[in-house]
Amino acid sequence: MEENNNLKKIQEAIESLPDNFSILEEQIDVELQMQYFEFTKDKTNNQGIEDFEAAEAQLYDPEISETDKKKLLVRLAGHDKVESFRIIERFRTQAEGPMRNWAILAIQEARMILQSSLLDEQQVYISTGLGGKGQNIRYFITLLNQDIEEDFTPTQKKLIETEFQYFLNKSEGELEEMNFDKGFALGLFLFPLKKNLQDIFKSFIEECNQYGNFLREDVIITNVKQLSIDEIRTFLNQEENIDEEENDT
């Protein structure tokens, strides 16, 4: 019951989004995103900057710690000035690793604040671990063979890829990648945020299973990150143990 209520609240929040929302395209680790949001909530990181030239110099100064540079990017992002936005943009082009992703998050915030100021209209940006494109969210999906210790046949692989692409296209989605491992079909795809993702899976799996009932009805889907085979198997084992415990009671 609680899970259904949470899903209902999420769906209601999505439906209430304005038509002009934007989605962060880059794939950035969710933990790093949460760290960035924690920095923005710290009032000491929201102090204004008077000398933008000096601030930009500090971003490239090897004597300045990474933590201080992160704080500086957050402070720059809080300005509704094009100059501040350009400083972050220039830094992002040469930054590497976590600092580059941090700069991307700062650019997103700076763009939102700048547009809100120029257009006098609240801007909404949405970010997930896997990013997106336009108004589509990127998802990672695992489809399961009825026997996860058996490979899909060449015919089954072709059917999965063809039918999944067909059902996605009908909903203005896009299949970006489909790979196969023993017992699993692993896909990366884009899907409109405001459309019900669950609607396509029942029809898709039913269509495939007309040719041998080889797919399980359950799927694993996430927009947080791409899962490894070990992570998928660990998740399935945990679910199996939960089911056995419930049956025992």
How would you concisely characterize the structure shown here?
With 249 residues, the protein is an alpha+beta fold. It has helices at residues 2-15, 30-41, 52-59, 66-77, 82-94, 97-119, 154-170, 198-209, 229-248; strands spanning 22-23, 125-126, 132-133, 136-145, 174-181, 184-192, 215-222. Helix 4 packs parallel to helix 6 (97-119) and helix 5 (82-94) runs antiparallel to helix 6.
Structure in words:
The chain is α+β, with helices and mostly antiparallel strands and 249 residues long. The chain has two domains: 16-126, no CATH class; 135-248, Alpha-Beta Plaits (2-Layer Sandwich), CATH 3.30.70.1290. 53% of the residues lie in helices and 16% in strands. The chain is built from nine helices and seven strands, in the order H-E-H-H-H-H-H-E-E-E-H-E-E-H-E-H. Strands 3, 4, 5, 6 and 7 form a five-stranded antiparallel β-sheet that branches. A two-stranded parallel ribbon has the order 1-2. A hairpin with a 2-residue loop joins strand 3 (132-133) and strand 4. Helix 7 (154-170) packs antiparallel against helix 8 (198-209). The radius of gyration is 22 Å and the shape is elongated.
Map the helices and strands:
Blueprint: H1 2-15, E1 22-23, H2 30-41, H3 52-59, H4 66-77, H5 82-94, H6 97-119, E2 125-126, E3 132-133, E4 136-145, H7 154-170, E5 174-181, E6 184-192, H8 198-209, E7 215-222, H9 229-248
Parallel strand pairs: 1-2
Antiparallel strand pairs: 3-4, 4-6, 4-7, 5-6
